[in-house]
Amino acid sequence: MIERDEKAASQNRPNVINPLTEAGRMERDRDITAFAAKHLAGPNQDLFEDLLTTMARLARDQTGRGDMKLLHKAIAELRYGFKVFRPYQHVRKISIFGSSRTPEADPDYEAAVDFGRAMSEAGWMVITGAGDGIMKAGHGGAGREASFGVAIRLPFEQKTNTIIAEDAKLVNFRYFFTRKLMFMKEASAVALFPGGFGTQDEGFEALTLVQTGKAPIVPIVMIEHRGGTYWPHWRTYVERELLNKGMISPADMSLFRIADSYQAAVDEVIRFYRVYHSMRWVNDDLLLRLEQPISARLLDRLNLEFRGIITDGKIELSKALPEEAAEFPEKPRLRMRFDKRSIGLLRQLIDQVNADE
């Protein structure tokens, strides 16, 4: 179970009602294990048991009905979202953000249509918020078959666009936090067009999750039409108010790119996965999975230029480790003891891997 020393922990929780005795806790655990073995058997049985234990604790704590409704709806939304995306788990997807108010005659709208079409032609699927404006443009370019919609219920403005409406790949969310989780969890890249508070929120959310290591590094690209000022002005703000005041590091500026055309944005996303494939932690080792081995010359250069982000040993070529051999076992790896904080420099390392000839 997720927490064995429940009795000791409960002493510091004045809101806990009727803490279990040791005998009561053992009886509860036996009942949960028996129920899981009968109804929830499989590779995730231990996790189901943990969830049931949490549910039992919520009941014991006399958690309020409002809190329980929030928890229930959040889990239900995520469960349904997982179900919808699961058949397409091996197809790369890109989350597209931008204003729902962008008119169809706007250059940004036209660029979003072209971008969605180009990503679909490259074998990708697109995820948008399922509304009008940039969201509809992304779906229009990619086409219904290559589109997902993750809609949010709002009391005004937001409605499902005609392209994704009634499609099986449309998921409706009550909460922004569950919706944003799905945007990032399922995406291998993020594209941002000009937009309002929501676009800014989603862009900074993506940057924060990548910068802190809470999400894998993915290409984050801001798309601007030629002569546009939206993203250049945004970058100026970031440089003057965040970078110059030491609130982010210079390497953090590597976590995003500003493209002055839809094709430049497409090229940026595709190039990111030219050699690099994915990453996985195994204990203290970070493994970068690759589409092909890198040259000995590049490996030497990586060890020289990025030795500051390695806490022990050096960057080495590796095969799949036993703990992760079920995932892409045929792909070569780079194995390293990464310091877990220099994410911008790790992005620069990946860029060099992709540039290797």
CATH structural class of the largest domain:
Alpha Beta
Rg over CA atoms: 23 Å
Fold-level CATH name of the largest domain: Rossmann fold
Q: Roughly how much helix do the residues carry, as a percent range?
A: 40-55%
The portion of residues forming beta strands comes to 15-25%
Major sheet: arrangement of strands: 4-3-2-1-5-6-7
CATH architecture name of the largest domain: 3-Layer(aba) Sandwich
What general outline do the C-alpha atoms trace? globular
Largest sheet: 7 strands, parallel
The count of helical stretches stands at 12
What's the rounded overall pLDDT mean?
94
Number of domains: 3
User: How do the SSEs run, as a string of H and E?
Assistant: HHHHEHEHEEHEHEHEHEEHEEH
The number of strands is: 11
Low-pLDDT stretches are 1-10
What structural class do helix, strand and pairing data support?
alpha/beta
Distance between termini? Answer: 50 Å
What can you tell me about this protein's structure?
The model is unreliable at 1-10 (pLDDT under 50). The protein is 44% helix and 16% strand. The protein has a seven-stranded parallel sheet with strand order 4-3-2-1-5-6-7, with helices on both faces. The protein has a four-stranded antiparallel sheet with strand order 8-9-11-10. Helix 8 links the parallel strand 5 (189-192) and strand 6 (220-223). It folds into three domains: 6-63, no CATH class; 89-272, Rossmann fold (3-Layer(aba) Sandwich), CATH 3.40.50.450; 276-355, 2-Layer Sandwich (Gyrase A, domain 2), CATH 3.30.1360. The chain contains twelve helices and eleven strands. It has helices at residues 6-10, 22-39, 45-60, 65-85, 107-121, 134-142, 176-185, 197-211, 230-243, 262-272, 296-305, 343-355, and strands at 93-97, 125-128, 147-152, 170-173, 189-192, 220-223, 257-259, 276-282, 285-290, 310-318, 333-338. With 357 residues, the protein is an alpha/beta fold.
